[in-house]
């Protein structure tokens, strides 16, 4: 393998976007909880108390009422018989309210679990606030029942009655905010956030509690699969936005994991066959050896959503390709080389799926994100050349299958990568340029000219770039490679290039630029290259002999 050149320019830490992705929301959830609970409680208590005050003012006049008796009449009831009647009546009301609340909440939770993921039930039962509300209803019922049984005129306790009045009042006034809380809790976006947060907590616990590592590993796996379930269920209901949010949450959890992967114990990576079902023993051994079992689990969920969305929901395909690229960038930033290589395999797999379904637009989007991953590892010529070779293979494969435009995208993206490498690590340019000039090797029949045309356009633009950089040795390699083309074909390529006068592409897609737009500062050098190629002028270097007439 070629040595790594220019490693000094390697990134020193995760990109800022990744740091934002794993930053908590601070105090915002607390403020949201206060907005849900406090206003309904205060309004209920305030309106109820205000109505009583208004009635007393109208009926008795506030001046004739002794102020110290207001608290006594409302809370510390002195009449034992009246208190007993109030106790019995309110117990029936509380029991009815609690029964209705439990019934409605159970139905809502079950519907949500059926629509998205069974994890909803677990999250709901594990939420401490839900448990608190249940106790807030059960305690006054039990307390009131016992109090009704022991309270008589002789041993009546106004303090106990006051406690019951306070507890039952709270149970009643919390009904409205509790329903608001339940609906807020069951919003799909909040369920996704809770599952993602549970993954982060479990990973943090896995670093400390090494005795329970198998349980933590299973919990993380199940959480990722549940996020995938939400995405797939959302696609079934045509809720693309929610599906995108679920896929992004998987990515965020994976980025969080990669930042802590090096600190996890060795037992974390010793995954068993029962957890990674469907893999051969050889693949499982490689996964354990390379410590990429979680990355494989994430890719399997992405793969399922990707293949389901091909030729249907291309936003999903673009999101998955973008997320996979960000995972690869994070892996490169934290020196997880095995993960980077795994991500490269993942991109190859996605391109293969696109070609199998002849989904050209999705393929071009995946190739674009593949190139962006290459931009993140410009300091690694070994990885760059591997990416270039894979792109060349899938470009040629699309040509064999007669799938247009994919080879054009490969040629454009390789040209962009070469320009970026030349500007930062010019000593690493040789391997990439060699692969770039091999893109036209399959042009064996007249029908292949349609594919070759886009490749030659990119090569001509590449030559113009090197002319501006005064690297005539590299220009010569391109010129020698293109001299085998007929003058008529070369002139048609030139006409097509200079006929494109706008940089923006005329369709809506991720790239937004035309592959073959010639910038003003590059136009003169491209003209010069075609002049040398057509023999209209003599280049400042000797040309290789033509291989055929």
Describe this structure in words.
With 549 residues, the chain is mostly helical. It has helices at 16-21, 28-59, 67-74, 80-115, 119-126, 128-150, 158-173, 175-185, 188-208, 213-236, 240-260, 281-290, 293-309, 314-333, 337-357, 360-376, 381-400, 406-424, 429-437, 449-468, 472-482, 487-499, 520-533. Helix 13 runs parallel beside helix 15 (337-357) and helix 15 packs antiparallel against helix 16 (360-376). The longest helix has 36 residues, at 80-115. The protein starts with 15 loop residues before the first helix and ends in a 16-residue tail after the last helix. 35% of the residues are buried. Mean pLDDT is 83; it is low at 1-27.
Largest sheet: none
Task: Bin the helical content.
Answer: over 70%
Structural class: mainly alpha
Helices and strands, in order, run as HHHHHHHHHHHHHHHHHHHHHHH
Q: Tell me how many strands there are.
A: 0
Tell me briefly what this model is.
The chain has 549 residues and is mostly helical. 72% of the residues lie in helices and 0% in strands.
Write the layout of secondary structure elements.
Elements: H1 16-21, H2 28-59, H3 67-74, H4 80-115, H5 119-126, H6 128-150, H7 158-173, H8 175-185, H9 188-208, H10 213-236, H11 240-260, H12 281-290, H13 293-309, H14 314-333, H15 337-357, H16 360-376, H17 381-400, H18 406-424, H19 429-437, H20 449-468, H21 472-482, H22 487-499, H23 520-533
């Amino acid at each position: 393998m070629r040595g790594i050149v220019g490693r000094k320019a390697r990134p020193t830490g995760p990109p800022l976007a990744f740091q934002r992705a794993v930053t908590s929301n601070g105090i915002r959830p607390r403020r949201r909880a206060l907005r849900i609970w406090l206003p309904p409680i205060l309004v209920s208590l305030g309106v109820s108390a205000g109505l009583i005050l208004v009635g007393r003012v109208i009926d008795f006049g506030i001046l004739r009422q002794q102020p110290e008796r207001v608290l006594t009449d409302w809370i510390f009831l002195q009449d034992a018989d009246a208190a007993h009647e109030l106790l019995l009546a309110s117990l029936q009301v509380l029991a009815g309210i609690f029964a209705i609340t439990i019934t409605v909440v159970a139905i809502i939770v079950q519907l949500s679990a059926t629509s998205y993921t069974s994890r909803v039930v677990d999250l709901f039962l594990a939420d401490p606030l839900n448990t608190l509300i249940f106790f807030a209803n059960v305690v006054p019922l039990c307390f009131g029942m016992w109090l009704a049984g022991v309270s008589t005129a002789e041993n009546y306790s106004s303090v106990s009655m006051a406690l019951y009045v306070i507890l039952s009042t709270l149970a009643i006034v919390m009904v409205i905010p509790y329903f608001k809380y339940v609906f807020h809790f069951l919003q799909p976006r909040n369920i996704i956030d809770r599952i993602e947060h549970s993954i982060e907590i479990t990973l943090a616990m896995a670093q400390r509690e090494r005795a329970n590592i198998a349980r933590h590993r299973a919990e993380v796996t199940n959480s990722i699969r549940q996020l995938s379930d939400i995405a797939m269920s959302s696609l079934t209901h045509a809720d693309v936005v929610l599906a995108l949010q679920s896929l992004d949450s998987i990515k965020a959890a994976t980025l969080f994991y990669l930042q802590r992967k090096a600190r996890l114990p060795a037992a974390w990576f010793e995954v068993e066959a029962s957890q990674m079902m469907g893999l051969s023993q050889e693949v499982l051994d490689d996964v354990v050896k390379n410590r990429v079992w979680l990355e494989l689990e994430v890719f399997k969920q992405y793969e399922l959503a990707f293949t389901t969305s091909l030729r249907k929901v291309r936003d999903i395909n673009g999101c998955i390709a973008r997320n996979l690229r960000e995972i690869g960038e994070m892996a490169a930033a934290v020196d997880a080389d095995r993960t980077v290589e795994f991500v490269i395999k993942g991109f190859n797999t996605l391109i293969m799926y696109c070609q199998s379904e002849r989904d050209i637009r999705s393929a071009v989007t995946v190739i674009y994100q593949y190139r962006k991953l290459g931009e993140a590892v410009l300091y690694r010529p070994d990885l760059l050349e591997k990416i270039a070779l894979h792109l060349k293979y899938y470009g040629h494969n699309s040509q064999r299958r007669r799938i247009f435009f994919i080879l054009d995208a490969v040629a454009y993206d390789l040209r962009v990568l070469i320009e970026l490498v030349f500007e930062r690590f010019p000593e690493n340019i040789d391997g990439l340029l060699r692969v770039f000039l091999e893109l036209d090797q399959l042009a064996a029949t007249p029908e292949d000219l349609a594919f070759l045309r886009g490749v030659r356009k990119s090569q001509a633009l590449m030559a113009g770039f090197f002319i501006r950089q005064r690297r005539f040795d590299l220009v010569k390699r391109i010129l020698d490679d293109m001299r085998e083309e007929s003058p008529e074909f070369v002139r048609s390529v030139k006409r097509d290039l200079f006929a494109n006068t706008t940089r923006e592409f005329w369709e809506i897609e991720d790239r937004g630029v035309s592959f073959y737009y010639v910038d003003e500062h590059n136009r003169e050098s491209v003209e010069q290259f075609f002049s040398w190629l057509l023999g209209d002028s003599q280049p400042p270097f000797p040309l290789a002999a033509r291989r055929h007439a």
